[in-house]
UniProtKB/TrEMBL annotation:
It comes from the Eukaryota. The gene is LOC100840644. This is Germin-like protein. Residues 63-213 form the Cupin type-1 domain. Disulfide bonds join 33-48. Belongs to the germin family. Keywords: Apoplast, Cell wall, Disulfide bond, Manganese, Metal-binding, Oxidoreductase, Secreted, Signal. Mn(2+) binds at residues 110, 112, 117, 158. It comes from Brachypodium distachyon (Purple false brome). Residues 1-23 form the signal peptide. PROSITE patterns: GERMIN. One of its GO terms (molecular function) is manganese ion binding. The lineage of its organism: Eukaryota, Viridiplantae, Streptophyta, Embryophyta, Tracheophyta. It catalyses: oxalate + O2 + 2 H(+) = H2O2 + 2 CO2. SMART domains: Cupin_1.
Length: 225
């Protein structure tokens, strides 16, 4: 009997751990939980605004996602609408982004630590892909045309590139988190503050330290706005 009870307890604990491991943003327990960004209380996300004080503007933003954006030196501009811009997204587990690509522009290799992304091309053509985790590091890539859809699994390194030298491209992406986060690989590795030791990076990339020093001296521009 004791053995059976121990087994049931272990199974319950494993189920709880597994649920936490696969969960994205926590599911809401009420109709909505509009973020109260002025609250001094710190929680995973934001404290709920008093429902009596909620109005339609908490769920609205004149984001003008129909208008093109200026791109930067990597040739892209990511306009993200997450809980920081739209308080009504709190606890709803979703956000949206417009991505503009200049001719030959790219959204460089990056990850979203808290979200899966589904992307659809509105204008132009994109070469997109993601890389699976160790040890295989398999590249899965595809050329997308207007109206095509592609999914990037949560946490995996992925990218988008506009192969057309003359025509810009536009995409809309939905992400499965109110705050998906973004880690651009080059920026994180070579543009961290303070910098990662060049001894560490030279060993990791199997290059001379001078090469690392040159890379760290570059301006690693952010394309998320």
């Amino acid at each position: 009997m004791a053995s059976s009870s121990s087994f049931l307890l272990l199974a319950s604990l494993l189920a709880m751990v597994s649920w936490q491991a696969i969960a994205s943003d926590p599911s809401p327990l009420q109709d909505f939980c509009v973020a109260d960004k002025d609250s001094p209380v710190l929680v995973n996300g934001f404290v709920c605004k008093n429902p009596k004080d909620v109005n339609a503007n908490d769920f609205f933003k004149a984001a003008e996602l129909d208008k093109p954006r200026m791109t930067n030196k990597v040739g892209s501009n990511v306009t993200l609408i997450n809980v920081m811009q739209l308080a009504g997204l709190n606890t709803l587990g979703i956000s949206i982004a417009r991505i503009d690509y200049a001719p030959l522009g790219q959204n460089p290799p990056h990850t979203h630590p808290r979200a899966t992304e589904i992307l659809t091309v509105l204008e132009g053509t994109l070469y997109v892909g993601f890389v699976t985790s160790n040890p295989n590091n398999t590249l899965l890539s595809k050329v997308l045309n207007k109206g095509d859809v592609f999914v990037f699994p949560v946490g995996l390194i992925h990218f988008q590139f506009n192969p057309n030298p003359h025509v810009p491209a536009v995409a809309i992406a939905a992400l499965s988190s109110q705050n998906p986060g973004a880690i651009t690989i080059a920026n994180a590795v070579f543009g961290s503050k303070p910098p990662i030791s060049d001894d560490v990076l030279a060993k990791a990339f199997q290059v001379e330290k001078g090469t690392i020093d040159w890379l760290q001296a570059q301006f690693w521009e952010n394309n998320h706005y």
